[in-house]
């Protein structure tokens, strides 16, 4: 597969790694609705499911393959012949099908999950890729728990699966174990030591157990990865996966650090898709979540509000409009200052001079101490009192 070295491929796994979270299960129509939104968002690959896991998941992959035309549709398998047969069947209507197969690469997995040896696992990895290749051209291989795998062995595995036909090599930090410098160095090592690495795209797939999933994915990109696997709102196993919106905005805010590199993501759709995924999956977004949390663009302390109202870039590195929000929030609490209060009064049509504002502010503080935050009705009542 020819790939563009200046393109950062965004691989969305909301419907697979995200959907496997307890309570987040979706119906096929819901998955189709989200997949269409992901297509509009500009993702390059949608991981639609793990077809062998259940008849429902199989059917979802079939239906998504029919409904979504302009994105690669990917199905997950273990390195089992039957998994691959079932995935290929589920993908039969996909215009651009991809099979994502793989096996554990760390000694921990080799010994305690597979009760096997490095040699045998290598053979199974190569056999799985060859079998998948008999069905489709686009094969992604995942070396599960690569974050804790022996580097030389990982490089040997990656080289062997590329030789067998893998077009993308996924280096998952399955347990969210790595630090950014370690994960970045792993990617750099593979770039340097795997002789056929230029024949494949390196993919980062990071989990958030230490809160480092996004940082690790970015470190991977800085070291040559050209695909990032992520989910909307960062949902996924345990502490979640890399958050799609964070990766896209880091790329935008720090564009000079990624010369020439771009993705197709339309960040203006983030707020809508985040809210839809959250409500369909019954998974609330934490208010302080970067980019899409309720407070991500809300200024609440007096010092910040005053600085923001003087010049928004004092406290704003991303424009709310860029992620689909109408405006930044100036929240009125007991920590707010006169400047914020005046701003809201003017917004509601009240013009007050300096002395009036000082008097109103004293009353405002009494109410604000009693309430957590004030809304427009509170301000109107205050002005009428
Ligand atoms: O975290 C992981 O290793 C995975 C693989 C199945 C890609 O999700
Ligand atoms: Zn995962």
TrEMBL record:
Any one biological process term the GO annotation gives: L-leucine biosynthetic process
UniProt feature coiled coil, ranges: none
Keyword terms of this UniProt record: Amino-acid biosynthesis, Branched-chain amino acid biosynthesis, Leucine biosynthesis, Manganese, Pyruvate, Transferase
EC supergroup of this enzyme: transferase
Listed InterPro entries: 2-IPM_HCS-like, AIPM/Hcit_synth_CS, Aldolase_TIM, LeuA/HCS_post-cat, PYR_CT
Pathway: Amino-acid biosynthesis; L-leucine biosynthesis; L-leucine from 3-methyl-2-oxobutanoate: step 1/4
A GO molecular function held by the record: 2-isopropylmalate synthase activity
Entry EC number(s): 2.3.3.13
Every Pyruvate carboxyltransferase domain range: 8-271
Membership in a protein family: Belongs to the alpha-IPM synthase/homocitrate synthase family. LeuA type 1 subfamily.
The name this protein goes by in its record: 2-isopropylmalate synthase
The species this protein was found in: Sphingobacterium deserti
